[in-house]
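Lab notebook, bench 4. The sequencing result for the construct came back, and we need a structural model before the next group meeting so we can plan mutations. Quick request posted to the team channel:

Model the 3D structure of this chain.
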Amino acid sequence: MDESLAQIPLPDFAAETPTDAAKKLNQHGFVLLKGLVTVLRCEQIRQLVDLARTRAAPRDYTAIHRPQSRKDLPLSLHPFSSIIADLLECQDSLLGKLIQRIAGEEARLVEFASMTILPGAAAQPVHQDVHMASADQDANARYLTVFVSLCDVPSERGPMEIWCGTQNMYIPWKGTEAADISDCSACSEQSDEDNGPVVAEDYEVEHEDELTLKHMQAATGIAQLTVGAGDVYVVDPRVLHRGRANLSLIPKQTLYLSFEESAKHPLLGSTNSILGRYSGRFTLNDLRNADRRDQKKNLETETKRRKLDSESSACIARGQVEGTAGLP
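Done. Here's the predicted structure in token form:
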């Protein structure tokens, strides 16, 4: 931990209105939306994620920093359609209105995945998830990642740590391939089979280069996201951050989805954790209405089924009457 930067209390980042949420997101690089998802819903999501992981092959996971014990798995949208629609519309559409205000209702879904941080996971180096294409702020698309915490995250369970206010600092993208990010064996203290305590102390903060260090030192403070199950935090992934070590015996599980503004230059370096069949297909507006479309489709299907059942019953009844007409 950088002793020169103040640890900012997490409640300072919470918001209850779209206006306040947008203000804090633009100021700090993230905002906390408390309790958007019920504990019961979190359990349902965990079960779906666990099922997806049991069916996944190693090639299905996305390349990230410290991949040996951080499992980033793109997910099928279908089992989650009602969950996503509820999330984007709950509490007077706080989350949906925030995303629309920042990135527009035509913002494209560019990531949909789960992140599981295994016990013993080492801390990540401080990094950005995406980089601006140019130093001209207005030329770059806005990009937001929505994280849904599926469990309580105390300080020992690998919370995200954010260097506040660094999202507008330009760090040129070096063109690192995803494969280079994935191959962290040289800088990781553990493997898939070694899920014991990490070797490196969690306060030993690594960074990618001197420019990153310079921007870290210019941050307005550090926030540690020790959130509860059902809390949602929306992050501008240009902000400098890292996942801390998971020193607990329990995995940290998160569902996340990312949206990118469609009318401007795309940001660089995203891992694009989304199944290929969804790439570029869905907008914020599509997902907000998905559940209503499914309900309408299900209603139409049920209406047709009942009509067919009724017609079938009528035919059977007529046949029985005709078949018995000549009997005494």
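The radius of gyration is 24 Å.
Will bring this to the meeting.
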